[in-house]
Specification:
This protein has 156 residues and is mainly alpha-helical. It folds into two domains: 57 residues, no CATH class; 81 residues, Transferase(Phosphotransferase) domain 1 (Transferase(Phosphotransferase), domain 1, Orthogonal Bundle), CATH 1.10.510.10. Helices cover 55% and strands 8% of the residues. It contains seven helices and four strands; from the N terminus they run αααααββββαα. The strands form two sheets. Strands 1-4 form a two-stranded antiparallel sheet. A two-stranded antiparallel ribbon has the order 2-3. A hairpin with a 2-residue loop joins strand 2 and strand 3. The longest helix is centred in the N-terminal third of the chain and has 16 residues.
Length: 156
């Protein structure tokens, strides 16, 4: 799933690439951006690395698969487990988008937690949950299989 901050991953990959190839960091960024189909690092940044950019950068340059279809059972279980844990504890993320989830060894790690909040009552949590849920689903085109699956599967 495209659940990584594209710029963070790109910068980390650039550092490794620069060190491995004995080149300056700016040269590594330029080369990796060009490998992903951009004319330069700056043109890549101007694209604002939207989800459609995910495939170009992640799959060709970093080898990370982007999720567009209904997830397999293991991925779905990890995703739903994260949502369930937050719901059970009445916690809202505040900026629940795909790029604020890191996936590693079939586990989800949440990042960008500055807006995270524990709610004392069900009413305030549910209002925040609806915002988090909607924000998360908006990562994919409304008609996509994944957006429809999320809308049907995630608790309301």
């Amino acid at each position: 799933m495209c659940a990584f901050s594209p710029l963070s991953l790109f910068k980390a990959k650039s550092k490794v690439f620069a060190k491995k190839n004995g080149i300056k960091l700016y040269a590594a960024r330029e080369q990796l951006a060009q490998n992903a189909g951009f004319s330069s690092y700056h043109s890549m940044l101007a694209s604002k690395y939207k989800p459609y950019f995910c495939e170009s950068l992640f799959e060709s340059t970093l080898g990370i698969r982007c999720l567009h279809d209904i997830p397999d059972e293991k991925t779905a279980s990890a995703m739903l487990h994260t949502f369930s844990q937050l719901a059970d504890a009445r916690i809202s993320h505040g900026d629940f988008k795909a790029t604020n989830q890191l996936w590693h060894d079939d586990q989800v790690w949440l990042i960008d937690l500055d807006a995270m909040q524990a709610h004392a009552d069900q009413t305030s949590w549910h209002k925040a949950w609806i915002r988090d849920r909607s924000r998360f689903i908006r990562n994919w085109p409304a008609g996509s299989q994944l957006a429809q699956w999320l809308d049907k599967t995630l608790p309301r």
